[in-house]
Amino acid sequence: MKQLVIAIDGYSSCGKSTTAKAVAHLLHYAYVDTGAMYRGVTLHLLEHGIAFDDLPAVEQVLKDLTISFRRHPQTGRNELFLDGANREDDIRQMRISNSVSEVSVIPQVRHALVAQQQRMGRKRGVVMDGRDIGTTVFPDAEVKVFMTADMELRARRRQMELADKDEHVPLADIIDNLRKRDHIDSTRAESPLRRATDAVLLDTTHITISEQVDFVIDQVFSAL
Ligand code: C5P
């Protein structure tokens, strides 16, 4: 069967990664969480005390740091590794969410990560979620979905995800973080978050995860 690229873009906490993972599983496709890669670079810069505007140091990190994904043998979860160490839980912390959009505006960071994402998807048969997949990483993706949802619902979802990891954050702080990230992500000069002209819009406010998955699968069948 023809191997496609499925691009799932949209705002934070709309259910992109849950949907993308389930679609990849059903189709036996690879799954790439591009947000995790921006989070990984952010974690590394913070841990090494590298200022985001120290461009020579940031460029050196982009050359030296190895970012990869591995599938957990028991849970099947796709986990982010930095230089061979599992950092999946660390990159999900609120301190990373609070800084990641500042790192993802840096053109050098975007160029390096977009190039790596293009290599990861070059054989196609991949579901990739992020902000610029359908516009910049794979403008020729056969399926493009742009996801959105009501702000309060997005914040409640993020709050539950954090609580599952024992991080208890007031709803107002999460709403503030999501608003700031949406703003920075949509207004940056380099590959801003926007709906590709040929992307189908999916508002997840009133639908279940399985309905979201069915919606994407329907798009896939129409593209085959
Ligand atoms: O998807 P997630 O919320 O984990 O993404 C974290 C951040 O990474 C986003 O708010 C955005 O700043 C950045 N990002 C990006 N381009 C992507 C994926 C994520 O700029 N393709």
From TrEMBL:
This chain's source organism reads Hymenobacter nivis
Q: Which domain of life is it from?
A: Bacteria
Please give one Gene Ontology molecular function term for this protein: dCMP kinase activity
Keywords assigned: ATP-binding, Cytoplasm, Kinase, Nucleotide-binding, Transferase
Task: Return the EC number.
Answer: 2.7.4.25
Which InterPro entries does the UniProt record give? Cytidylate_kin, Cytidylate_kinase_dom, P-loop_NTPase
Among the entry's GO cellular component annotations, what is one? cytosol
Locate the residues binding ATP.
10-18
Q: Does the keyword Transferase apply?
A: yes
**What protein name is recorded for this chain?**
Cytidylate kinase
Q: Which reaction does it catalyse?
A: CMP + ATP = CDP + ADP; dCMP + ATP = dCDP + ADP
Give its localization: Cytoplasm
Q: Which residues form the Cytidylate kinase domain?
A: 6-220
Task: Give the family per the record.
Answer: Belongs to the cytidylate kinase family. Type 1 subfamily.
One BP term from GO? pyrimidine nucleotide metabolic process
Q: Which Pfam families match?
A: Cytidylate_kin
Identify which top EC class this enzyme belongs to. transferase
